Every structure is written in structure tokens, then in C-alpha cells.
Amino acid sequence: MNNAITGRKTENAIKESMFLFLLYICVVIAILTLMTLIYDVISTGFERLTDDYEIGIINKIQVENPRDFLTSLDSRDPLKAGIGPAFAGTIWLMFIVVSITFPFGAGAAIYLQEFAPKNKLTRFIELNLTNLAGVPSVIYGLLGLAVFVRLAGFGRSVLSGGLTLTLLILPVVIVASREALKAVPDTIRQGALALGATKFQAIFRQVVPSAIPGMVTGMVLGLSRAIGETAPLIFMGALTYVNYYPDNPLSGFTAIPIQVYNWIGYPQAEWKDTASAGIILLLLLLLTMNSLALFIRNRFEKDW
Amino acid sequence: MEKVNLNTSQENLSKEFVFKADNVSVSYGEFVAIKNVNLDIVKNKITAFIGPSGCGKSTLIRTFNRMNDLIPSASVSGTINYQGVDLYDKDVDPVQVRRRIGMVFQKPNPFPKTIRENIAFGLKVNEMTDNIDDRIEKALTQAALWDEVKDDLDKNALELSGGQQQRLCIARTIAVEPDTILMDEPCSALDPVATKRIEDLMQELVQNFSILIVTHNMQQASRASDYCAFFTTKTSDDGKRRTGELVEFSETNSMFTNPKEELTEQYISGRFG
Q1: What are the tens digits of pLDDT across the range A91-101?
Q2: Chains A–B, number of C-beta pairs less than 8 Å apart
Q3: Which 8-state DSSP code applies to residue A267?
Q4: CB atoms within 10 A of CB A87
Q5: Least enclosed by CB within 10 Å: which of A106, A298, B81, B239?
Q6: How far apart are CA B245 and CA B213, in angstroms?
Q7: What is the pLDDT of residues A23-64, one digit of tens each?
């Protein structure tokens, strides 16, 4: 009897540990792939950012002012090319995207979650929001080209780019904001109403403030998707060679991912390293934003 | 739209009834949750609603402050007269109703803000912001919570214990000076010590307020209430639908010592339900 019991236990234990091992392997493969990519980018790009810059095995070239990479303009010479205008373009895009997406995204989410009647039209809108969140990003580039560049006459400007990216992430931000509102327990709404608050007061003074951290997290994650996008911007006609800083919303512009895409297309080896340096900057930007989202979520997350 | 003043009808106050429910039925769509209830709730007394799960007690109590309005499929028939005014008259503003008839819920639901803000919210939406600190102190004192929290009013309310949270919910309810408090199983999430405190508190509050309480706890109803309404569910002939009904309504003492209905006697003696 005893033996039978112990026998079963061992058998199950082996099965369990085998399965755990498989899961473990999956994690290791995913992380190793990511690490390899990051290592590759950093090992090639980081040298470009330091004084001693080696090309191949024999040639050792001194980059004149490697630390100017962040601020200098693009150039025909890979050793002089900087990411300045693209960096500025990305900052412009972020500014435009945030200032339009947050009010519209939060507003639409609040309406749909708290006020919209539960009818066919609302369900149709909800269904389409989820669909829009899955539309390939080039399609948004096409839309941006037709609507903002041509129809609205904004040209191939940073404004058109920002609006295109806004359309791209708006569905994602609305869905995330709705989830944040949905996570606020109904007892909070009822508690507020039972005190003689109007529906409007209950929602705007209790429900929405409780959901703000979740909404901001969704916004930051959406934004970090937007600044990594290349295809829609190229499609709507963002420039690839920009030798000036955009100084108003109607300026032509380029963004970091476009600049990287452009550099990597040149045949010389030096360009590959310059592109890697650009990728490092983009990675840093994304990492900062995702950490910010994580921080907001952990700091303000509520245990109901 | 002219709003009906809920303060009127002094002559009805002399009869000491706060609510007169006449033939009240509540349904959710096709489903009738509770039907044909006739109840007169006495002012400044504690009235308990008891009965098995699904008998519609919570549904019924929510008709007294029009919380059922929030459920689109819910409909109420019959009349509920509140101090001389028909609560479901089209000129009655449900927001005003809820201000005058407070509600404490089953699970403590403080807002995820400071203790001070929890009470200030009701005062602000009701434009009672004069002497706000005095009002907060008074409400917390009445809810027997002041001594425990007076030094950290800016602490997040979610850090309080369950019993303290529920007393905070009572405090914010009485801060807006209602005249009736509805309690929907206010102690079901609390331990016996916290429950005892809430029951003691109810005895204090009933000096100034009329209290309606839904409870699953027979002992609580017998200890804490003056009047008791016993509800049960009746299954329809095809056995598919269960509808709540009022079985017996009387003074708590007489119900627990000398129930008029067989069903009541079975329930309070624990042989059913």
C-alpha cells in the first residue's frame, strides 16, 4: 500500500518537473533571443559613440566628435552623421500624439464605458474599436496621406505625422482606458450615488480619478508603440533626409526609426554602426517609457 | 421641471410612518423579484428585513432610495409613499431622494481616498461645505469612529480595518444629514466584534434616524430591530421562477416569541431557510 502511494507520487513529480523544465526552456529561449539582439546592437553601436571607433579588423578611425551624435545633423559621411533632427522629430511627434490622444482617448472611453446606452450602435462601435486596434499600421499611413497630407492640406509635416500616429494608437488607448474604468468596482459608483451625487459627479469625481493611473499607463504604452513605428510615417511621406530641426508643426520632419531605416539601407559598414547607435537611442527611449508605465502602475495600483 | 419638496406634509409625520409601501412589486424584465408588498415603516425605529436568499429583500430596500433606477431592466409598480410624497412620482428627483435616504452597503465601499475626503465628498456634492471640518468631526463622532481616526484623517480609507471602513461608510452617509438610513446586510463582511459595534451604533443612531436593515442573521434581527418583516420565496407552478413575498410583518418581539405564520416560525427556529 505504502509503495503504491509513493510510486504514484514519484511518477507525478517527474511529469511535473518535465513540464516545468519545458516552460523554463521557453523562457530561456525568448530571453536569449532578446539578449542576443540587444548585445549585437550595443556592441556595434556603442563603439560609434566612443572615441576609438574600429572598422573591420585593420582600420581604426577616429570619429571627430562622437558625443555630438545626439545633436548633429544628418550627413553624407557616416562618421559625421548625427540623429539630431530625427530625435527632435520624434519629440515633436510624441508631443502632438499625447496632446491629442489623451483627451480624445479618455473622453471616448469614459463615454463608452459609463454613459453610452447599451444598444446596437454602441456594440457596433465597440466591435470596430477592437478591429481597428488590429489593423496593420501601413493602412494608417495610407489614411494619413489621404486625409491629413492631401485633404486637410497639412502637407508632409510633423503635424500630419502626429495625427497619423494618433489614429494608430487611439483604438488601443481607448480599449486600455475602458479596461481601467471597468476595473473600478461598481460599489464605488453606487456609494457615490447613494450620497446624493449625480451620475456626472459620481463618474468625474470618483470613478475617473480612480482610473487615471490605468489610463495613463495605457497612454504611455500606446505612445511607446507610436514612436517605434516606421511604416505609416514613410507611407504618409515623411522625409528620409532632413538636415534641419523642425521648428513648427508644419515643418517637414523625420523620426528616429525612419532615420535608422534609411541609414541601414546604405552599403558601407560604417552606416550599419551609425544605425545601431540610433537603435540604442530608440531602445533607451522605449525602455524609459515602459519603466514609467510600470512605475505608475505599481505606485498607484489599488487593492480594492 | 419643478421638484417636489420632500420636506412637506407635516401631518403625515405625526403618524410616525416614514415609508408606506402599497402593493409594491419589482421586476427585472420578465422576472418578478418581489411582489405585492404592503409595509408601513415606523419613523425613528429599526426595521429589519429577514428571509432566505433570493427572497427580494435587497431588491425591495433598493426601491426605497431609488437605487433600482440604475438597473435599466428594473421596474417598480405600486406606490411607495415617503413622508407624504410618492417616491416614484415623475417630478421626484432620484438624486434628492438618495440625499435624504442614505444607504450603507453589504461590503464596505469607502472611496480610495483619505478619510477626510470620503466624508467631504458627500458634503461637497450636496453643497454643505460650510464648517466642513466640524461636520466631518460630528459625523465621525456619531459613527463612533472619531477617537480612532482623529489623528490621521489624511490616511487612505482603504488602510482601515473592515469594521472601521463600514463605520466610515456610515459616517459619510449621516454627514449629509439624511433622515433615513438603509442598510443592506451591513455586517455580513465583518467579524462578530465589529458587528457588535455596528449594532450598538444603530441603537445610538435610531434616536435621530429611521433605519431599515436587511440581514441574514436571525440573532441580529432579534437583538437589534424594533420591527421585523419576514419574506420568503414562492416558486411558480412550473417550478422555473421564484418570486419573493412578504409573509409577516410585526414587532420584533412578538415575531420571535409568537409568530403568527407557520412559515415564520419554521424560519426563525432554524427548520427552514
Answers
A1: 999 999 999 99
A2: 70
A3: S
A4: 22
A5: B239
A6: 17
A7: 999 999 999 999 999 998 888 887 777 656 655 555 555 566
